[in-house]
Each structure stands twice: as structure tokens, then as C-alpha cells.
Automatic annotation (TrEMBL):
<keyword id="KW-0067">ATP-binding</keyword>
<dbReference type="InterPro" id="IPR017871">
    <property type="entry name" value="ABC_transporter-like_CS"/>
</dbReference>
<keyword id="KW-0813">Transport</keyword>
<keyword id="KW-0547">Nucleotide-binding</keyword>
<dbReference type="InterPro" id="IPR003439">
    <property type="entry name" value="ABC_transporter-like_ATP-bd"/>
</dbReference>
<dbReference type="GO" id="GO:0016887">
    <property type="term" value="F:ATP hydrolysis activity"/>
</dbReference>
<dbReference type="Pfam" id="PF00005">
    <property type="entry name" value="ABC_tran"/>
</dbReference>
<dbReference type="InterPro" id="IPR003593">
    <property type="entry name" value="AAA+_ATPase"/>
</dbReference>
<dbReference type="InterPro" id="IPR027417">
    <property type="entry name" value="P-loop_NTPase"/>
</dbReference>
<feature type="domain" description="ABC transporter">
    <location>
        <begin position="2"/>
        <end position="238"/>
    </location>
</feature>
<protein>
    <submittedName>
        <fullName>ABC transporter</fullName>
    </submittedName>
</protein>
<dbReference type="GO" id="GO:0005524">
    <property type="term" value="F:ATP binding"/>
</dbReference>
Length: 247
């Protein structure tokens, strides 16, 4: 469960988030949409504790984290998996070593246990047998899937995705969308997905939240978004869809 209460955030005197209130229920997929620069990634970084808000509270699995020290944040972060926009794999390590990295760093698991988890998570993302492959031999979509396997390996209760389908072709985007949904179904994780792709948002979201000029201007199901009477929401949705169709 994630809950943001009255979050304010500024950078160099410029207010980026203004009294944000947002709740993500356990096991829910919440998709965050909004124009470039509206504060979506900032919101994710606040949830991980990488940034501290100027004001407000951030609750993660029943704990208020905005005042926690780096040390106290470690167990909170261990409950989270992150899939970044640019897969952020270690290029000098094999796929297997990338997926195993967090387990080797943060747990006392035996090598046998680690290998079992690596095998299982790579199977989940459709990359069985790719343990010895080096990242530079992978396509963008495969890298994203390794990144998801690495995030899942730590058995998180929360998964945060920052632009998981950016730069991928429509077929690979659909594959990633399906993985986000099946990962939630299999692991029961709470998921927050920042995306620019409205098609993805409508496919995967239990609820969508739209940020505009630092504020959440609408939350609701895909259906409620499609039928929104807010002109800013409609303009955003249709702008995005026609932009994609024109590509
Ligand atoms: N560390 C930082 N220092 C200064 N300004 C920042 C910092 N991080 C973000 N910003 C500013 O905050 C605003 C929101 O940035 P953010 O990356 O959260 O937007 P976004 O909605 O994720 O954008 P995009 O869709 O383009 O990724 C931008 O104006 C950005 O320049």
C-alpha cells in the first residue's frame, strides 16, 4: 500500500508538485500519466525515498518514510522493485549476474538458491536460458525484461515502472504490458507505472491518475478516463492517441 498525503516538492524555487494526494491499494496497478515535466518521475523518486518532499507524508506499507535516514530506508527499499526507463543493466555482467546482483548484495542466500530464483524469474519474463548472455547482445525489449526479472528477484511487494515501454515497438510494448499484468497476478504486487503511452495505460490500469501542472487533476478507471468531461484530460488522451497513430 502506498499513500501520499499533501506532498509538496520544489526544485530551485520552482514548485513541481503541489499538494498531491494519492493512494495505491495493495495489489493495484495505478498508472500515472501527464505531460512531459509534470512531475511523474519525481513522484516515483519520492516513493522510493530517493527524494525528500518539502512537505507532506509518504506512507509505504504502513510506514511513513519521508523523515527516514538512508539506513532506515534500506528495509523499505527492499520491499520495492524498480524498472527504469533505460533498463539500467550492468553492461559488464551477464544477464544472470544482473538478475542475481541484489540477492548477492543484500541477502545471505546460497548460490544454489540464487540460481533457482534467477532461473524462475527469467522464465517468468520469457528469457529462459539467457543467463550467460551479455546485455549488449539483447534488444531494448529484452533488456527491459531482464530489468523486470531483476526487480522481481528480490520478491518485492511493490513494483515501480518508469516509462517501461518507451522506445519499444508496439509488439514489444504489448509484451511488456502483458508482463506487468501477469506479474501482478502471479506475485500480487502493488504496481505504479509511469507511461506516455495511452494505449498501455488503458490496457493495464486498474486506475489512472493524471498529473497536470503539479496537481492530480483526475483519477479513475480507464473507462472513467475515456468518458472524462475534463477538457485537459480529453485533449491529453486524444493528442497522445493521434500522435501514436501518426507514427
Ligand atoms: N533533481 C532535479 N533538480 C532540478 N529540477 C528537477 C530535478 N528533477 C526534476 N526536476 C524538474 O522537475 C520537473 C518535473 O520533472 P519530472 O522528471 O518529474 O517530470 P516527468 O513528468 O517525469 O517528465 P517526463 O515525462 O519528460 O519524463 C521538471 O521541470 C524537471 O526539470
Amino acid at each position: 500500500m502506498i499513500k501520499l498525503v499533501n506532498i509538496n516538492m520544489s526544485f530551485g524555487g520552482k514548485q513541481v508538485l503541489n499538494k498531491i494526494n494519492l493512494e495505491v491499494a495493495a495489489g493495484e496497478i495505478l498508472v500515472i500519466i501527464g505531460p512531459s515535466g509534470s512531475g511523474k518521475s519525481t513522484l516515483l523518486r519520492l516513493i522510493t525515498g530517493l527524494l525528500k518532499p518539502d512537505g507532506g507524508q509518504i506512507w509505504v506499507n504502513g510506514r511513513e518514510i519521508s523523515g527516514l535516514s538512508e539506513d532506515s530506508l534500506i528495509p523499505v527499499r527492499q520491499q520495492m522493485g524498480m524498472v527504469f526507463q533505460y533498463a539500467a543493466l550492468f553492461d559488464s555482467m551477464t544477464v544472470g549476474e544482473n538478475v542475481a546482483f541484489g540477492l548477492r548484495e543484500h541477502t545471505k542466500m546460497t548460490e544454489e538458491e540464487i540460481q533457482k530464483i534467477v532461473r524462475r524469474t527469467l522464465r517468468m519474463v520469457g528469457l529462459s536460458g539467457h543467463e550467460p548472455t551479455m546485455p549488449d547482445q539483447l534488444s531494448g525489449g529484452m533488456k527491459k525484461r531482464v530489468s523486470l526479472a531483476r526487480a522481481i528477484a528480490g520478491n518485492p511487494s511493490i513494483l515501480l515502472y518508469d516509462e517501461p515501454t518507451t522506445g519499444l515497438d508496439p509488439i514489444m510494448s504489448e509484451t511488456i504490458d502483458r508482463l506487468i499484468v501477469s506479474t501482478r497476478r502471479i506475485l500480487g504486487v502493488t504496481s505504479v507505472v509511469v507511461t506516455h503511452h495511452m494505449t498501455s495505460a488503458f490496457h493495464i490500469a486498474d486506475r489512472i491518475a493524471m498529473i497536470h501542472q503539479g496537481q492530480i487533476i483526475e483519477t479513475g478507471t480507464s473507462e472513467q478516463f475515456r468518458n472524462s468531461t475534463n477538457p485537459i484530460v480529453q485533449q491529453f488522451i486524444h493528442g497522445k492517441q493521434s500522435h501514436r497513430a501518426a507514427k
